[in-house]
Design goal:
Layout: E1 2-7, E2 10-13, E3 18-26, E4 33-39, E5 46-51, E6 58-60, E7 68-73, E8 78-83, E9 92-99, E10 115-116, E11 120-125
Parallel strand pairs: 2-11
Antiparallel strand pairs: 1-3, 3-8, 4-5, 4-9, 5-6, 7-8, 9-10, 9-11
Length: 126
């Protein structure tokens, strides 16, 4: 089992930045792809991005490419989501998730992920 706890969400003006963190505990010796998802009010949860175990491969949804960056520090069992140039449409609850299936290949499918955090809210105002 892996427990995931997100932090770093909050209120930010459009154009600003936030960095989300996701700390993993439990069975962290396994190799996991780590993903970020978000769910806006009244909408389904969507894939934001993911990073391979080694950190050498990343994948992003088109709407955040060039603005968001995922990184990880395996020594700290933590993955980060740096969000720049935030827009009101980025407002959502952000979730991190762990995928134990294919450590070297980030996947976008929600059902690929085995463990989920509780989410951290991000509100971007104009």
């Amino acid at each position: 089992q892996v427990q995931l706890v997100e932090s770093g969400g909050g209120l930010v003006q459009a154009g600003g930045s936030l960095r989300l963190s996701c700390a993993a505990s439990g069975r962290t010796s396994s190799r996991y792809v780590m993903g970020w998802f978000r769910q806006a009010p009244g909408k389904e949860r969507e894939f934001v991005g993911a990073i391979s175990w080694s950190g050498t491969r990343t994948a992003y949804v088109d709407s955040v490419k060039g603005r968001f960056t995922i990184s990880r520090d395996n020594a700290k069992n933590t993955v980060y989501l740096q969000m720049n140039s935030l827009k009101p449409e980025d407002t959502a609850v952000y979730y991190c998730a762990a995928d134990r299936g294919t450590p070297d290949f980030p996947r976008a499918r929600e059902d690929s992920y085995d463990y989920w955090g509780q989410g951290t809210p991000v509100t971007v105002f104009s």
